[in-house]
Amino acid sequence: MVDRLPRNEGKSCLIAFVFSCPGSLEEKNKRLVQGQTGNNLAELIKIIREDSTYRGYFQWEDRYDYRITNASTVIHYKAKDGVSEPSRGEIMCEENLNRLVDDLKGYMVIITFGEKARIAVTACRDKIRNSQIIHVQHLGFQSLNQIKKDYQGNDLLSSNGNKLVGKFNTHARLEVVAKEIIRKLIAQ
């Protein structure tokens, strides 16, 4: 078993995604952003690419064609170490922040997903020059399910175990996140 997972390189210095830390699926598959979070990232990229205006930023369909890194490279999950997130001390240690600066240096747009990623990238902001930093919520269900309305302001239906409605709601929630990213891209 491995204790850490390094960044995913990507194809260019345009977009970088920052998440919290690797978990059990990442450990098993030795690749970042697996499982539902990975599926949601792939769907998010697809939604943004549907608007051809933003294909210049989101040039590739495959999430692994983008730089992906984490606030911490240490693998965490409940069965392994009792936690699913890195501690603030783990994120803020100088060695980790220097690693994150190296991972993100030169990227034009850095998108952080979740609080831990936001904290880490904010701590590095002065060393990551000329980058637009966009903070949005994490793409895991615990965070996404906090979104109760679609991007047009309509209430989402309760799925009550209906997988089709659940899938529709996930897509609608990802559209909300996509619109937030696009709005922040435009604002800069």
What does this protein structure show overall?
It is a single chain. With 188 residues, this protein is α/β, with parallel strands linked by helices. It has a domain at 15-145: Uracil-DNA glycosylase-like domain (Uracil-DNA Glycosylase, subunit E). Helices cover 43% and strands 10% of the residues. The protein has eight helices and four strands, in the order E-H-H-E-H-H-H-E-H-E-H-H. Helix 6 links the parallel strand 3 (109-113) and strand 4. Helix 2 (35-50) crosses helix 8 and helix 5 crosses helix 6 (115-124). The chain is globular and about 45 Å long.
CATH level 1 name of the domain at 15-145 = Alpha Beta
CATH fold-level topology of the domain at 15-145: Uracil-DNA Glycosylase, subunit E
The CATH superfamily of the domain at 15-145 bears the name Uracil-DNA glycosylase-like domain
Helix/strand/pairing class, anyone?
alpha/beta
| Largest sheet descriptor | 4 strands, parallel
Percent helix: 40-55%
Oligomer: single chain
Helix-strand pattern: EHHEHHHEHEHH
Strand order of the largest sheet: 2-1-3-4
- What fraction of residues sit in β-strands? 5-15%
CATH architecture of the domain at 15-145: 3-Layer(aba) Sandwich
Query: What is the 3D shape?
Result: globular
Radius of gyration: 16 Å
Termini gap: 42 Å
Secondary structure tally: strands: 4
Low-confidence stretches: none
Quote the average pLDDT. Answer: 92
Number of helices: 8
